[in-house]
Amino acid sequence: MPVIAITGGIGSGKSTVRLMFEELGAFGIDADELARQVVRPGSEGARLLEEEFGSEFFDSEGRLHRRQMAAKVFDDPKARVALEGILHPLIRAAEKKLIDSIYPQNAEAVIVVEIPLLVEGGRSREYSGVVLVTAPDQVRISRLVDSGKYTRDEAVSRMASQAADGTRENIATWTVDNAGERDLTAGQVRKIYKAITGK
After folding, report:
1. 97-135 pLDDT, tens digit each
2. Helix axis angle, 66-74 relative to 44-53, nearest 10°?
3. DSSP SS3 for 43
4. Nearest to 87 by CA among 100, 75, 99, 70
5. Structural domain count of the chain
6. Residue 119 and residue 79 share a domain
7. pLDDT tens digits for 26-79?
8. Do residues 143 and 37 make contact, with C-beta atoms less than 8 angstroms apart?
9. Are residues 79 and 125 part of one domain?
10. Alpha-carbon torsion 126, 19, 74, 63, what sign?
11. Full residue range of the structural domain in which residue 91 is found
12. Measured distance CA(176)–CA(60) in Å, rounded
């Protein structure tokens, strides 16, 4: 059962590519969604984060202020290391539990795991292969600004804080150019899926 990582810079279109794999029959896992689950109110993750960073990062119902936490760790390497030290083991455990739940009934299934910070986390060797999703910087900036979640300056700063595509290429098994039309991206995904499954 191959477990494939999907990675790429912010705004490259990792989720789009993951969904395309799912449409072809793969099981998809979103590490960002797991990150939200492991800090839900009342969870061990929420408790550990509150102990480390304080209750001001949570609302009255125990929900984490994700943007506030992101702003905290963005310019503070020590805080980022502390955050990752808490979250990464919990996310990995949740990911393993999901994979283990899929395997017994679907021994030949392809599982794709969308992991934004694969290079930064040093986890690439844990997977059967790595799909790198790329797009030019200006395309990525436009997508981030159009999403309404980032200003242009914020988008540029977030991109600059991540590993460069040149570094990601060192761990990539396949590369998907997601700069153009959806059909062009889908065609690349189909070729990779065929290479993995032989179908």
Report:
1. 999 998 778 778 899 999 988 887 788 888 999 999 999
2. 50
3. coil
4. 70
5. 2
6. no
7. 999 999 999 999 999 999 999 999 999 999 999 999 999 998 998 898 888 899
8. no
9. no
10. negative
11. 32-107
12. 42
